[in-house]
Automatic annotation (TrEMBL):
Protein name: Methylglutaconyl-CoA hydratase
SUPFAM superfamilies xref list: ClpP/crotonase
Species classification: Bacteria, Pseudomonadati, Bacteroidota, Flavobacteriia, Flavobacteriales
Family: Belongs to the enoyl-CoA hydratase/isomerase family.
Leader peptide range in chain numbering: none
Recorded GO MF terms: catalytic activity
Pfam family, one: ECH_1
Amino acid sequence: MKKQEKQMTTTRENGSLYTHIENKVATLEFGHPASNSFPSVLLERLANEFDKLSTNDEVSVIVLKSEGERAFCAGASFDELVSIDNLEEGKAFFSGFANVINAMRRCSKLIVGRVQGKTVGGGVGLAAACDYVLATEQASIKLSEFTIGIGPFVIAPAVERKISVSGLAELTLDATSWKNAYWAKEKGLYARVFETQNELDKEVEILSEKLASYNPEALAEMKKALWKGTEHWEELLIERAETSGKLVLSEFTKKALEKFRK
């Protein structure tokens, strides 16, 4: 039955988000027909869900995953990006991932990321905001924002926290290249990399069950310790969203995006 579910992906225009709680483990699964990308409404739902799970006494650990067997996450909705025509819209659009990362950061539960395939842009930020990430060999990453005249400013603090300034620079400045899963592991974004999704799922299950068996108070204190010194992100990430919102209105970016308009 599980294998059959894995094949299915949502056809909903605004994407899907499901939470399943069992044995103190909340599995949070998102999906979108466009390579599991995020329209603003889905990002808002995800941020709210993390806030909700943070105060749920029936949950000790959260597993974040996406639908299907291919891309983990293609970042924020490209259709929404190309339709931005003022600063207010731009700031609101880029605040989507800022709000999710902040919700993950302040969530009292440890978050395990399950990354089964390629991830781009905001999706890399999502993986970086998890506390522990397991991935497959197919889970290559790329930050291609420079190619359209913007930059990964909102997610940069989360990515830098995991892979250092040098790793962030390499990933951002080499904007057309994919970095493979082993590069991501070596840099610290992924904890472990597996050959197959079956192995990945088995290990995600083992790890989440182990974590859920530990003292929830100890887990919550560890979460605080891991994120110490990031309290200023509430303001920082929104400031970064404004920076990106300005850049998306630049002549350079408008020209770069013109070819993508429908």
